[in-house]
Specification:
By secondary structure, the protein is mainly α. The protein has helices at residues 23-30, 35-48, 57-71, 78-93, 99-111, 114-119, 125-138, 142-155, 159-175, 181-190, 197-210, 219-237, 249-256, 261-274, 278-289, 294-310, 317-324, 331-344, 352-361, 379-386, 392-401, 424-432, 441-455, 461-470, 473-476, 480-492, 500-505, 512-523, 530-537, 544-557, 565-573, 577-591, 598-607, 612-622, 630-638, 653-671; strands at 14-15, 18-19, 367-368, 376-377. The protein has a two-stranded antiparallel ribbon. Strands 3-4 form a two-stranded antiparallel ribbon. A hairpin with a 2-residue loop joins strand 1 and strand 2. Helix 28 runs parallel beside helix 30 (544-557) and helix 30 runs parallel beside helix 32. It is globular. 44% of the residues are buried.
């Protein structure tokens, strides 16, 4: 199976890590009798020739040897080899790699496709599970592929292989839409009562993605019944146990999979295919979350995270059901519920009673002690504070009075608003004890400053000034503590009059924009502020983010920033659409000139969803004058999808940003009499 491997000039080939000289050893390692060596070799292959969606000339050179490995019955873990080949084929077909490499990779895999015909009937069930997807990807013509799939469904007796065959039918429909009738008919047949619940769920998931018109009218109740039937079957045979496995990339990926990976995949496929049918998905989640099987409930908790991140569900029931999982003994389920609720902030409100009961009953969940590093606020308490529930305040007070206080506790305070005011004295005292120069200064001070800023606690002014005045000069211009301290002074307003010299001293540093804003808040005098912001705005060689921040700050000054209008108009005329929109909003707020920039703001709203918070904030600040933008706000409120769901890098905290955008839109329209 390695014939000719030494004739390849591997040293001249490249993979993700550089020279491909190590590839022959990795290929031979895949055939090793030692499980650890095979695992390490597979890990190496994924890290080198299949790294992060890349395709390399070394990848192409591997394909013949991987095909040879796949058909040698003496080789263990051949299923993983087939999956690796399928993954290479997917990369070659996604358009994200050089065209020549992609063409050659597809040609090599199609030339070796007869291997997968043989493997579809292999004695190893794992190989039979991996083969159908490869058949659909690499074999032709379509009629032959469909005939082979139909034949395998007829003779196959292993449930897991049948699930793979159902999945491959969905892939067939996706790839051969003009010849898919037979595949869809097979899926309808597999979804019928003749087959077991797992296979029926798999078929329904594929139909939802490729032929939703063929789904039963009572889809959600039917799926919930099938899921419980499947769980009953698994309970009698026992769920797969978690195995530690070797500490390799492939091993770690396997350990991150759910305990019931098959069930998770079945339901995830269905949820993904249902897409925008949010009402059905919420009802389905509720059915999953009330399952007698804790693994079904755990899978549902994790799936709910994807739904909440992308869609504005508007339903409290699934959140409350997730909260109900906090009282269970299953650690994996409990941890999943805490993790998801911590992402939801105020949307976790329906679970607040469960969260509060947990942190009161189980003090050990208030502080998390990691194996390495400083302690952090426990997930349940963090989630409770994130809801804004005032019952978090006395619990946080107890933590603050205890022997171990997490550095990040301060970040939970802003969510509580005025309800956290009783915590101000303790936070103030802790800030006064933060060391002025040391590796832990930023980690300890920044969260406390964030909390005291949110509370507007002007009595902490001496402690804030102590930080600003006492830090070494080399750190003051760059340190995140300085940024946080300046924001705090701005929040204190006129009560921070004593800090004026420090703020003036920062106007020539990287903190110029924040210092200028704070100085305006303290003094209300534009003469020292506007020139600094204008300098930052027009510094074309500087950081574009600082220019945008300067434009935003000028907008908040209102008519006092009129001297900056020419610079703002120039900024609004060119550059990234987001920065142009920020400058345009500033001109409107300062000069009341909407006509010139309405088209730009509408384009920015549509082209870059990240600008919507800025534009909506502009409409809010303008009051009745913002009416030309109100149709955008109404459309936003009517949209079921979160505004940044399609933005690359969309993350957990964008749920909170999206909810904030909705609050602004509602407030503006309510003030205009449209709420």
């Amino acid at each position: 199976m390695f014939r000719g491997i030494d004739e390849v000039d591997w040293a001249s080939l490249r993979h993700a890590n550089g020279s491909a000289e190590d590839v022959p050893g990795l290929l031979r390692g895949l055939a090793s009798a030692d499980p650890a060596e095979r695992e390490s070799a597979l890990d190496g292959m994924y890290g080198a020739v299949h790294h992060e969606g890349g395709l390399y000339d070394a990848t192409l050179a591997c394909v013949p040897f991987l095909l040879a490995l796949a058909v040698h019955e003496e080789v263990r873990d051949r299923a993983e080899v087939v999956e690796l080949l399928a993954g290479i084929g997917d990369i070659a077909g996604d358009g994200g790699v050089p065209a020549e490499l992609a063409t050659r990779a597809r040609a090599a895999l199609h030339a070796g496709a007869e291997v997968f015909v043989r493997l579809a009937g292999d004695a190893d069930t794992g190989v039979r599970r991996a083969a159908p997807g490869a058949l659909v990807r690499f074999l032709g013509p379509p009629e032959r592929v469909l005939a082979l799939l139909r034949e395998r469904i007829t003779v196959e007796r292993d449930d897991r292989v049948l699930l793979a065959l159902a999945t491959s039918l969905g892939l067939f429909v996706e790839r051969h839409q003009g010849r898919a009738t037979g595949a869809m008919e097979l899926l309808v047949e597999l979804s019928g009562p003749r087959y077991g619940p797992g296979l029926r769920l798999a078929a329904l998931g594929q139909l939802a993605g490729c032929a939703p018109e063929l789904l039963p009218a009572d889809l959600v109740p039917a799926v919930v019944r099938l899921l419980r039937d499947r769980s009953g079957e698994h309970a009698s045979s026992g769920h797969p146990s978690d195995r530690p496995g070797p500490d390799t990339l492939a091993g770690r990926l396997r350990r991150l999979r759910p305990s019931d990976e098959e069930g998770s995949q079945l339901m995830r496929t269905l949820h993904s295919a249902l897409g925008s049918r949010v009402t059905d998905r919420v009802a389905l989640l509720c059915g999953q979350l009330t399952s007698p099987d804790p693994l079904d409930r755990c899978n549902a908790v994790w799936m709910s995270a994807g739904l909440f991140r992308e869609w504005r569900t508007g339903g409290a029931e699934p959140v409350a059901l997730i909260g109900a999982q906090l009282g269970v003994e299953e650690v994996r389920l409990h941890d999943a519920a805490v993790a998801v609720l911590s992402e939801l902030f105020e949307l976790a409100g329906p679970a607040a009673d469960h969260l509060h009961a947990l942190v009161v009953r189980r003090p050990e969940f208030r502080v998390r002690h990691g194996e390495r590093g400083a302690p952090t606020l426990g997930g349940p308490l963090k989630a409770l504070a994130g809801t804004g529930d005032p019952r978090a305040t006395p619990v946080l007070s107890e933590v603050l009075a205890g022997p171990v206080v997490p550095d990040d506790l301060g970040y939970a305070i802003p969510h509580l608003g005025p309800a956290a005011l009783p915590l101000a004295p303790a936070l103030r005292r802790r800030l006064a004890r933060v060391p002025l120069d040391g590796p832990g200064t930023a980690a300890r001070a920044a969260p406390l400053l964030s909390a005291l800023t949110a509370l507007g606690d002007a009595e902490s002014l001496p402690a804030v000034l102590r930080l600003l005045r006492g830090m070494p000069d080399g750190r003051r211009s760059r340190d995140g503590v300085t940024r946080a301290a300046v924001r705090a002074l701005g929040a204190f307003g006129g009560a921070a009059y004593e800090a004026i010299p420090e703020l003036r001293g920062l106007l020539a540093t990287d903190h110029a924009v924040a210092a200028a804003e704070a100085l305006w808040s303290v003094t209300g005098e534009p003469d020292a502020v506007v020139p600094v912001l204008l300098r930052e705005l027009t510094d074309t060689g500087g950081d574009p983010r600082r220019r945008a921040a300067a434009a935003d700050a000028l907008a908040r000054l209102g008519p006092a920033a009129r001297p900056a209008l020419p610079g703002l108009r120039r900024t609004a005329g060119s550059g990234a659409v987001g920065h142009r929109a920020t400058a345009a909003c500033a001109v409107w707020r300062i000069a009341g000139e909407p006509e010139q920039f309405l088209s730009l703001l509408r384009s920015a709203w549509a082209q870059d969803p990240r600008t919507r918070t800025t534009v909506a904030g502009c409409a809010a600040a303008l009051g009745p004058s913002g009416a030309p933008l109100h149709d955008l706000l109404r459309a936003e409120l009517a949209s079921p999808r979160r505004h940044r769901a399609d933005v690359r890098g969309y993350g957990v905290h964008d749920i909170r940003e999206d909810e904030g955008l909705l609050r602004v839109c509602r407030g503006v329209l309510a003030g205009a009499g449209h709420g």
